[in-house]
Design goal:
Blueprint (H helix, E strand, L loop, with lengths): L1 H58 L2 E6 L3 E4 L4 E2 L3 E5 L4 E3 L6 E5 L5 E4 L2 E4 L8 E8 L2 E9 L43 H9 L9 E3 L5 E3 L24 E2 L16 E2 H16 L5 E4 L4 H15 L1 H7 L13 E5 L15 H9 L5 E5 L4 H4 L4 E7 L2 H10 L3 H9 L3
Parallel strand pairs: 2-10
Antiparallel strand pairs: 1-4, 3-8, 4-5, 6-9, 7-8, 9-10, 11-12, 13-14, 15-16, 16-18, 17-18
Helix pairs in contact: 4-5
């Protein structure tokens, strides 16, 4: 009896053990399957994300190259580093200047080459040599035109010729010359210069701040005056160079050393205050081109004539002697929204609007206004600001006049 019971207990125990082991095996198998499934899901999600990112990168790749300059005027020996940005499909910009995939080459390597990413004008170059520099990133390209300008000759002070001591001639006994009857002097005809003055002084013949030179051009006599008016009728002396030029402490659209970084001291400090206030209000304004010499303006004007023709060039570029840049009181500015270029669209952006509404508070005016082209002689330039001092700039701004109109109405007869 007891033996039977013992066998039954053993059998039941064995069955229970088998059952427990079976349940454990099934549970382990289930857990393993779940882990595997979870791992597969994670891997799948990772793959999907990678594919999505790849797709985004592909869709959001570089669509356009933007260069910091379109045209460059460089002297022999100059080096220039162009900033290159890539425009993405979402409208954002990325800096490609130092990207290893960015390639560049010149079509005139013997005169203007690329060295370590910089444009270099070689010693073999001559004035008016040109080159097209092409930048390539993947399948996207952009070009910049480079022209060599003549180096400015240092001006020599006229040497004072040594005065020759009069040689003593051997004294002769004075001979009595026969007396001549006094001749009637011919009456002088009115000088043509006066007529020329009336014809060329088409601004106002009573203006005491100009004179007519030997070529019949109207030349200002007060080039150092902060309020000097310079335009197509009123020329600066060709040898005028401001004697108080300094570099304003602001950001420029280029990195190399260049005379166009300079302004007259008073204007430079005013520009620093303007840029600093703009920055506080979330507005970025950078310098593009300040002082230009007579010679440099001549090169620029001739370049534009060759490129556009005389009539078109005369609307967008000043002749030498007629540029406010030579005064050291004017500067072209820009912003990232127009890729630091000089474009009319600047006037529609927040930076251009801020400048138009606030420049006078720092002594500047927008010199060439929209709709006033017939008066100023130049196209609308929302980027060109001219320093007049805070009081005068504010008065010109509040009266809504061009400087030509203001000068004629309020300053001419002072």
């Amino acid at each position: 009896m007891y033996k039977k019971v013992g066998k039954i207990v053993l059998i039941v125990g064995a069955l229970c053990l088998v059952f427990i082991l079976a349940i454990g095996f099934i549970k382990d198998r289930k857990d393993t399957n779940e882990v595997t499934a979870q791992g597969n899901a994670v891997e799948s999600e990772k793959d999907n994300k990678e594919q999505e990112n790849d797709s985004k990168e592909e869709d959001n790749g570089v669509k356009e190259l933007r260069l910091s300059e379109e045209n460059l005027l460089l002297k022999i020996g100059d080096k220039y580093s162009v900033e290159v940005e890539g425009l993405l499909a979402d409208g954002s910009l990325i800096d490609l200047t130092d990207d290893s995939k960015l390639l560049s080459h010149s079509n005139n390597e013997e005169k203007i080459s690329i060295e370590n990413g910089e444009i270099v004008v070689l010693d073999s170059a001559e004035a008016d040599d040109e080159a097209t520099i092409t930048y390539v990133y993947e399948n996207i390209s952009a070009t910049i035109n480079v022209k060599v300008e003549a180096a400015e000759e240092p001006k020599e002070e006229p040497k004072e010729e040594p005065k020759e001591e009069p040689k003593e001639e051997p004294k002769e006994e004075p001979k009595e010359e026969p007396k001549e009857e006094p001749k009637e002097e011919p009456k002088e005809e009115p000088k043509e210069e006066n007529n020329e003055s009336d014809q060329n002084n088409n601004y106002n013949s009573n203006d005491k701040t100009v004179m007519i030179d030997e070529d019949g051009k109207q030349v200002v006599t007060n080039p150092k005056d902060i309020h000097v008016l310079v335009n197509k009728q009123r020329n600066l002396p060709s040898d005028y160079v401001p004697d108080d030029l300094i570099k304003p402490d602001i950001k420029f659209s280029f990195t190399h050393e260049d005379p166009k970084r300079y302004l007259r001291e008073e204007a430079a400090h005013a520009l620093e205050r303007l840029v600093a206030q703009a920055k506080e209000e979330g507005i970025e304004i950078v310098g593009v081109s300040g002082y230009r010499s007579y010679k440099r303006q001549e090169t620029i004007f001739n370049y534009n004539v060759n490129k556009r023709g005389y009539e078109a060039a005369n609307k967008v570029s000043a002749k030498p002697g007629q540029s406010e840049h030579q005064t050291g009181l004017a500067i072209d500015v820009s912003c990232a929204g127009v890729n630091y270029k000089l474009q009319e669209r600047l006037g529609e952006l927040k930076e251009g609007k801020w400048l138009a509404e606030n420049a006078h508070k720092f002594g500047f005016i927008i010199r060439y206004q929209l709709g006033k082209e017939d008066i100023t002689g130049y196209q609308y330039e929302p980027w060109h600001i001219r320093y007049l001092g805070e009081d005068l700039a504010t008065d010109v701004y509040e009266k809504g006049l061009t400087y030509e109109e203001y000068f004629e109405q309020y300053m001419l007869n002072e």
